[in-house]
Specification:
heterodimer, A: mainly beta, 5-stranded antiparallel sheet, 56% strand, B: mainly beta, 4-stranded antiparallel sheet
Amino acid sequence: AQSVTQLGSHVSVSEGALVLLRCNYSSSVPPYLFWYVQYPNQGLQLLLKYTTGATLVKGINGFEAEFKKSETSFHLTKPSAHMSDAAEYFCAVGTGGFKTIFGAGTRLFVKA
Amino acid sequence: DVKVTQSSRYLVKRTGEKVFLECVQDMDHENMFWYRQDPGLGLRLIYFSYDVKMKEKGDIPEGYSVSREKKERFSLILESASTNQTSMYLCASRTRQGTMETQYFGPGTRLLVL
């Protein structure tokens, strides 16, 4: 069975600091991996995704993530946090069939 | 610009009421989903529809039903609302190509059952 674990339900960083949100997955087949972001009182929107090919994926708003098969990880990073990055972030895995499995989410706080 | 709309942003209902949540997408997507979102639990799939009049149960279908009479519209029905159905409900749509494809989400309906 597929599953997604996001390490840390809350992460707090200072403005300008590195953002690192951790995601580990389990899958018996090659996974499709996603990061979605949810701003307050809004639905989720896609930040980036990995399907095949290059393992370093660049997304919107300066975020990127690296697929590491050996570590079963897909961590999300951004070199310099902005106040506008404060949101909840969801890692997700799709492996065929119709279901996409979502992690529990990590809420990012950005301090001025 | 892709668009998924949900009929209400906020709803307050009484225990035992029948509740209808409507979702409409304008992208001609075949697949549509209903999730509920609860703190610490992420998104859990309630029902999925892969085409008109077709549906599949998700992980937590108990107490819910769905209807998809037209391609663009997917309705979630709470037959007899209960307090444990107080939650945020998110609708999403996706092309038929499968789980490699992006899901597009509506803004959500926050339901309070008293």
